[in-house]
Amino acid sequence: FEKGGFDIVIGNPPYIDSETMTLTQPLERKMYSSLYQTTKGNWDIYVVFYERGMCLLGSHGKLSYITPNKWLSIKYGATMRKMYFSNIWKLCDCQNVKVFDAGNEPVICCFSKDDVSRLSIEKFNSDYSLSVINELNKRKIDSSNLGICISENIKLLIKINAQKLLSDFAVVENPFTTGEAYDLIPLIKNQKDPNDAYKLVNTGLIDPYINYWGQNEITYLKNKYLYPVIDKAEFKKKFSRRVRQANAKKIIISGMRHFESFLDMNGTYIAGKSTIIVLGASNNETFYLLLAFLNSKLMTFYINQSYSSLGIGGGINFSKDMVSILPIPNLLESSEALRKIHSLSLNLNLQDGTKIDFASLENQIDFLVYHLY
Hints:
Elements: E1 6-11, H1 18-24, H2 26-35, H3 46-56, E2 57-68, H4 78-84, E3 88-93, E4 106-112, E5 118-124, E6 130-137, H5 154-161, E7 164-165, E8 171-173, H6 178-183, E9 188-190, E10 197-201, E11 206-207, E12 210-211, E13 218-220, E14 223-225, E15 228-231, H7 232-238, H8 243-247, E16 250-254, E17 256-257, E18 261-264, E19 269-271, E20 275-279, H9 284-294, H10 297-306, E21 311-312, E22 315-317, H11 320-324, E23 327-328, H12 336-349, H13 358-372
Parallel strand pairs: 1-2, 3-5, 10-19
Antiparallel strand pairs: 2-4, 3-4, 5-6, 7-23, 8-20, 9-15, 10-15, 11-12, 13-14, 16-18, 16-20, 17-22, 21-22
Helix pairs in contact: 9-12, 12-13
């Protein structure tokens, strides 16, 4: 350390998530938040260890930690990814081997005090042998999501990423805070034929292009409903800031596990807890095109491969920030493929929920979507 820092820092930082730390170590959490730049949002304790470890390195020093892989994609890791993007030189994926009894999927991350232009990605196979997945020039990726780096399909993901963003064509919002979701409960009624009321949907009712309101029972914060509705006047009185969303043309996306969405063109539905909404598109055609891209097999593949570090039990919890940066081809260009996709999406949206010819129509959309990307 007399030379200005350590040559090597190696560690297995403790895993304490934000919720546990807030309950058990509130003073320490407040202190770390004031001392470290990377402690943004709902950060877990290993983030602090990364920043402290980098501070301890001398010139030309190297750091290697084994930690959960969430920081590669999750929102609270954004500052850390940006700060140390130029320093990271190797990632080693450990998903195929059991490293810890807790059963999480760690990653070994290697950083250098010097700037590094290339990134090596490796993985442990089930027999604990090591394979090189890729060697990347960092100019081909950015710090917004390093989760793509641990995919064996990274070259394809980079090609898909060479598009515009969903946020170039519409606005992505959360429909409710957690507090608002609980405040909504007293307003929910079970009514088969609602009069001047919104229908309430949540993630469990959403399938590609359709929803199952009135067909499948939903559980909303431990309460069960078959025909959940909310009187419009009562909703406006209680949630005046959310009326704009409720009345808007919007795409409602399931926020957990399966990425599926349907289109509410008449402001009929209130999107419940754990959903995401897309609104503010310039015209109806854009809504139908976005709906087709979001429900395509290519988008499912892209999300599963790019955000596997956020997976829980085989699925992924989605956020509005993640949805905002999904790659979308330029919808403002005039092409035969876009016109066909619009027509097919329109036909799918007009179905009554019986899924007549859905498979055929969806396959045609998927073929056209592959071509555009």
